[in-house]
Amino acid sequence: xxKQLLYIxxxxxxxxxxxxxDDVAGGPVNKSGEDLNKTVEIKLTPxxxxxxxxxxxxxxxxxxxxxxxxVFFEGHKPTSKIVSYQDIDFSKMTPNAYxxxxxxxxxxxxxxxxxxxxxxxxxxxxxxxxxxDVMNTKVDIRSTGTQDGRYSQYQPATNRQYNTxxxxxxxDTIQNDQVxxxxxxxxxxxxINVKTDFSGRxxxxxxTPTEIFMHNFWNKCKWNEKSGCDSLIKTAESIYxxxxxxxxxxxxxPFATLNDxxxxxxxxxxxxxxxxxSADLQVVxxxxxxxxxxxxxxxxxxxxxxxxVEQNNAYTINITIKGKGVELKxxxxxPLNSSSNLTVNVEVSPWTTVPNIDxxxx
Length: 362
Description:
single chain; 4-stranded mixed beta sheet; 2 helices; disordered C terminus
């Protein structure tokens, strides 16, 4: 499973005195009243924007960092108190030869635990006092519709998600004034590939896709939750969905008629984790189906991995359409029954590999 590495090292005041003001961008917020006598080093890898136009395959670089909030605590979870936090802007920093960033931040000698929240708005934890308060804040899927994850500042405006501001999280105990954190993405990546196979049919069947959208997805999730914890959004079909969630649909696109024997890479979505329920997380392919009887608008709903979608995993949904799908009067009627005229293969894998970096704390 892809994990980004965030390395925090605590130094004594002698080393901190050697830091310039540029090393602690914006300065830490001290909530303890104690001296700030430790520093932090953060290491992570960069990424680029993922387009959702048909046939786009570049979805591997999903490691961008913009604003990262580092929070230090004293005491034991879940009642440990915040002693300090700091927002750091990584967007203009340059990684080393191994793709690793390094940045220093100060905290107090009382700090025993650290949490990192990546690609969040500034002062994200300003109203929090304890570890549990931080964990009770929520990841909003709409943040993936902005290039830097700052949803509260910029609302999504197009049928597009970006991989430059994906929410990430890591935590660990400080030992010997050092802590190594592993950051994991809070979302899963779902890529949809589609082809048709009408061989053996004599009714002149054909299918032209017009839209791909998510169905039954969570809008928010707590940082330490395994599945959604807020509202279930029934569908992202463009004729029903509000502007807030248009990012969960391709919108109506002039897709080419599918007649290629190879899978066409149509869309990539980022979704919050989903642990089974009576209404599975689904992706729906919508389009125009034609045969000797006429033409109609048809849906092909597909449940993703049997209702088990874990954060920081990559899911590839390979769909082969072999006949007519289902007709729906209202996609909001409830869970959609899949068509028997298709086959689905789901590939699950860690979200790319992780560098082999020693986690031993000395």
